[in-house]
Amino acid sequence: MRFDITDLRLFLNIYKAGSITGGANLSHLSLQSASERIRGMESELGVLLFTRTKVGVTLTNAGLSLVNHANTVLQQIEHMRSELQQYSKGLRGHIHLLANSSGQTEFLPHKIGRYLHQQPNISLSVTEMPSTKIVSNINNQMADLGIVADSTALNGLDHRTLCDDPLIVFVPLASPWTKWDSVSFSDIVNSEFVGLTEGIALQDHLDEHAKSLGTRLNYRVRMATVDGIMQVVSQGGGLAIIPQQSALRFIGNYQGKLISLSDTWAKRKLVICARNFDQLPNYVTEFIDFLFE
C-alpha cells in the first residue's frame, strides 16, 4: 500500500472533524491536498472510506474498519518512537516478555526489580496472556521471550524449564472435600467455584479444561487476585484452583485446606521460550541466564 502516516492521520482527523475541510485544517494541509490524499487512499484500497454529503462526511463500513487499524498503527509508531528515543539516553536494549498468570504474578516480581537495578540501561515490558497465545505471538515475532506452562504445545520454539508450577485446590474447612488429600478435576468440576476475573490467563485455561469435559465451571464470584480468592473460599464461598506457589504465600492468612490436583495438566512447570535462543541479542541471553540464578 502506498499511503503513509500523514494519510492515516489525515483520515482520522477527517473522521473526528466530520468533514474533509475540518480534517485538512487539523492536519495542516490544504483542502486540495487533503482531498487528493483521501482519493488516493480509496483508489489504492479499492473502497470508499467516506460517504460525502452536503454537510460533511460519514464513515462507510470500510472506513469504520480502517479507524481501528489506523489507530493501532499510529499507536505502535508512537511506542516505537518513544522506545527508540531512549537509546539516545544510553539505553542498551529493550526486552519484550510475554507471561502467563503464574509467570506474571509469582515468578517474575521478585526477579525483575533486582535485574533492573543491576542493569540500568535495559528496559523491560511484560504482558500477561494465555500460554497458547504467547506461543503464537512468539512464532509471529511479536515478542522476544515467553513464559508459559509446559503443557502448552510449543510448536518448535526453543525452551528451558524455569520452575515447578503445579495447580492445587483450596477448600474451606467445612467442605466435605477436606477428607481428601488428592482429587481430579472431573471429581470437583460440578462444584461451586471462586475464580479469577474473566480474561486472566489461568482462568481461561481452567475454563477450557471444563469445556473438554462437556461442562462449564459454576462461579459464585470472581476475584482479581489469588489473595482475594482464598479469603472468599476460607469463608465458605466455594472451591478454588490456584497456583501452589501463590497458595503457599497466603495460606497462613486464611483457614482452609490445600488438596493436590491429580490431573497431568495440573502438574505443570513454567518454561521460558523463544524462536531461537542462539539468535537472541546478548542482552536478552543475559536476562535469561539471570532468571536461572
Quick structural summary:
The chain is of the alpha/beta class and 293 residues long.
Structural write-up:
The protein is α/β, with parallel strands linked by helices and 293 residues long. The protein folds into three domains: 5-77, Orthogonal Bundle (Arc Repressor Mutant, subunit A); 91-164 and 269-292, 3-Layer(aba) Sandwich (D-Maltodextrin-Binding Protein, domain 2); 167-264, D-Maltodextrin-Binding Protein, domain 2 (3-Layer(aba) Sandwich), CATH 3.40.190.290. 44% of the residues lie in helices and 23% in strands. The strands form four sheets. Strands 4-3-5-13-6 form a five-stranded mixed beta sheet, sandwiched between helices. A four-stranded mixed beta sheet has the order 8-12-7-11. It has a two-stranded antiparallel sheet with strand order 1-2. A hairpin with a 2-residue loop joins strand 1 (50-53) and strand 2. The longest helix is centred in the first third of the chain and has 27 residues, at 61-87. The chain is globular and about 80 Å long.
